[in-house]
Specification:
5 strands, Rossmann fold, 5 helices
Length: about 180
């Protein structure tokens, strides 16, 4: 395998999928060194206790996204319906003095087969089936090198596809029924 550049990646997901997320992080971060995981519930920094969307987004950027370069949205059955996933994607796409924009990819968890109906709406705003959007969607990777290529492509998109970002959708106010 060629040398892998290890990027810090924020992992966004619905907590019902924690078992699959832990397996993903364990397989590709801890065992293979493909990325360095940044995620609520993975980094032992605790949950942000507030109902103020702007405050939560700022704290997510400060605690988890500030040194991340790519956000990986792990797609499970109800990921699309979670407001925190929407807020994390919105924070990922911001580009300000404190936090630079991150690349954005979605990866189906192993038990999810269909697309694009299960993609979060803000992610869909940035994804195109033909690959021309800012964000890209993938099936679950079968190898460390495959995931490394996905991450590297998202990393490069921060510069090469920044003009394709759509982040004007109102923040999700609550979780949707799934």
């Amino acid at each position: 395998m060629a040398s892998i550049i290890t990027r810090k990646c924020f992992v966004s997901y619905h907590h019902d999928d924690q078992k699959y997320v832990d397996e993903f992080v364990n397989t590709f971060d801890e065992k293979k060194g493909v990325f360095i995981a940044r995620a609520l519930g993975v980094m032992d920094q605790g949950v942000i206790d507030s109902t103020d969307a702007e405050y939560i987004m700022r704290r997510i950027r400060e605690k988890y996204l500030t040194d991340s370069t790519v956000t990986i949205v792990l797609i499970g059955k109800c990921t699309w319906a979670r407001r925190y996933v929407d807020w994390e994607i919105a924070s990922t796409l911001r580009n300000d003095a404190n936090n630079k924009r991150s690349g954005l990819v979605a990866i189906n968890l192993p038990y999810v087969n269909d697309i694009p109906t299960t993609l979060p709406p803000r992610f869909k705003d940035n994804w195109k089936l033909d690959g021309s959007g800012y964000a890209k969607w993938y099936k679950y990777p079968t190898s460390a090198s495959g995931l490394a290529d996905i991450i590297e492509e998202a990393y490069r998109a921060r510069e090469t596809k920044a003009d394709r970002i759509g982040n004007t959708r109102a923040l999700a106010g609550s979780n949707k029924d799934c």
